[in-house]
């Protein structure tokens, strides 16, 4: 696996879409977290949808990344939904002791989309392109390691 | 035990450890949930070997006990060892910046869990998950 490969982030209006399709090593997970936070700030996204249906494992590191992404997005006024967690992964997470507190989950992409109100009900409606170069810098998103 | 071996010194090695374990779990005929539990436990232990143990080696293979088949995985390092095992098992206890879930969580995810460690003597952890 390429040590510097990154997970692509797709932009759809005010929504950021991520489909995790490889077994991420830890640096990749950290990079995704940084990239996503940067993109939320740059694009003014109001929703983040992360599809993990291809993942056959979520361990404490990946679980923490998901929770951290949701927490940082919240601070930046964006909602996060994690979709497609496999049953075996969910069962294992519980036994591992990871609660994914604060992370909204949905069965599939369609249901996840429905949980992101900006996409379902008001696509770019009343808000113009606001300037989002706020006081948050990308460096703030880098977790201490 | 016939053995697969993975050197553990980087993030990528932890991913390799997961893949080797998954392949053996499938070979042993473990159900999907059992595979997932074992691979997740190994991911936690291998990461601990890299981060806390300063690197080491993983060996893995099939084990048999009468009609049962299982997968046994050992993570071994020559690192600082674990001085207080009881605390290391506690959820939320960490000397790094993790969640402190890996060690105790890994024990819950396997059937057999054996630790050999002492301060300055390294750490060897062997786990088995049976089919
Ligand atoms: N191989 C090892 N060598 C030395 N110390 C270890 C080893 N494995 C675990 N420990 C000790 O046990 C503690 C608890 O481990 P555990 O995996 O539960 O938490 P963590 O690795 O700190 O965080 P997390 O795994 O949740 O990211 C570690 O902080 C470390 O002090
Ligand atoms: Mg750990």
What is the percentage of strand-forming residues of chain A? 15-25%
Q: Into which percentage range does the β-strand content of chain B fall?
A: 25-35%
- Rounded to the nearest angstrom, the distance between the terminal CA atoms of chain B is 16 Å
CATH superfamily of chain B: Histidine kinase-like ATPase, C-terminal domain
Number of domains of chain A: 1
Helix amount of chain A: 25-40%
Q: Major sheet of chain B: order of its strands?
A: 1-2-3-5-4
- Uncertain regions spanning at least 5 consecutive residues of chain B: none
**Mean pLDDT of chain A, nearest integer?**
84
Written description of the protein model:
The complex is a heterodimer of chains A (145) and B (131). By secondary structure, chain A is α/β, with parallel strands linked by helices. Chain A has a single domain, classed as STAS domain (Transcription Regulator spoIIAA), CATH 3.30.750. Chain A has helices at residues 26-43, 60-75, 87-96, 109-114, 117-120, and strands spanning 9-12, 15-19, 47-51, 79-83, 104-106. In chain A, a hairpin with a 2-residue loop joins strand 1 and strand 2 (15-19). The longest helix of chain A is centred in the N-terminal third of the chain and has 18 residues, at 26-43. The radius of gyration of chain A is 15 Å and the shape is globular. Residues 120-145 of chain A have low confidence and may be disordered. Chain B is an alpha+beta fold. Chain B contains four helices and five strands. Chain B has a five-stranded antiparallel beta sheet, covered by helices on one side. In chain B, strand 2 (56-65) and strand 3 (68-77) form a beta hairpin. In chain B, helix 1 (11-27) packs antiparallel against helix 2. Chain B starts with a strand and ends with a strand. The A-B interface holds A 1, 3, 23-28, 56-61, 64, 87-89, 91-92, 95-98, 144-145 and B 10-12, 14-15, 18-19, 22, 32-33, 35-37, 39-40, 43-44, 47, 91, 97-99, 101-102, 104-106, 108-109. Residues 44, 48-49, 52-53, 77, 79-80, 82, 88, 93-96, 98-104, 123 of chain B line the site of adenosine-5'-triphosphate (ATP). Chain B: This is Anti-sigma regulatory factor. Chain B: It holds the Pfam family HATPase_c. Chain B: Residues 34-127 form the Histidine kinase/HSP90-like ATPase domain.
């Amino acid at each position: 696996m390429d040590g510097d490969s990154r997970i692509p982030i797709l932009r759809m209006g005010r929504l950021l879409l991520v489909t995790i399709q490889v077994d991420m090593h830890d640096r990749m997970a950290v990079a995704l977290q940084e990239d996503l936070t940067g993109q939320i700030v740059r694009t003014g996204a109001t929703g983040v949808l992360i599809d993990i249906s291809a993942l056959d494992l979520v361990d404490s590191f990946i679980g923490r990344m998901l929770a951290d992404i949701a927490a940082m997005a919240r601070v930046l006024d964006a909602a996060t939904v994690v979709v497609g967690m496999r049953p075996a992964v969910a069962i294992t997470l519980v036994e591992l002791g990871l609660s994914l507190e604060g992370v909204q989950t949905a069965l599939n992409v369609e249901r996840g989309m429905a949980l992101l109100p900006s996409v379902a009900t008001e696509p770019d409606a009343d808000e113009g392109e606001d300037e989002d170069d706020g006081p948050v810098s990308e460096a703030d998103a880098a977790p201490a390691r | 035990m016939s053995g697969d071996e993975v050197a553990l010194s980087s993030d990528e090695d932890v991913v390799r450890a997961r893949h080797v374990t998954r392949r053996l779990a499938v070979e042993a005929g473990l159900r999907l949930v059992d595979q997932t539990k074992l691979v997740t436990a190994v991911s936690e232990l291998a990461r601990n070997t890299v981060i806390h143990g300063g690197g080491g080696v993983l060996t893995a293979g099939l084990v048999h006990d009468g009609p049962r088949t299982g997968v046994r995985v050992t993570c071994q390092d020559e690192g600082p060892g674990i001085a207080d095992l009881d605390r290391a098992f506690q959820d939320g206890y960490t000397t790094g910046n993790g969640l402190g879930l890996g060690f105790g969580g890994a024990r819950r995810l396997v059937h057999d869990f054996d630790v050999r460690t002492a301060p300055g003597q390294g750490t060897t952890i062997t786990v088995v998950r049976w089919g």
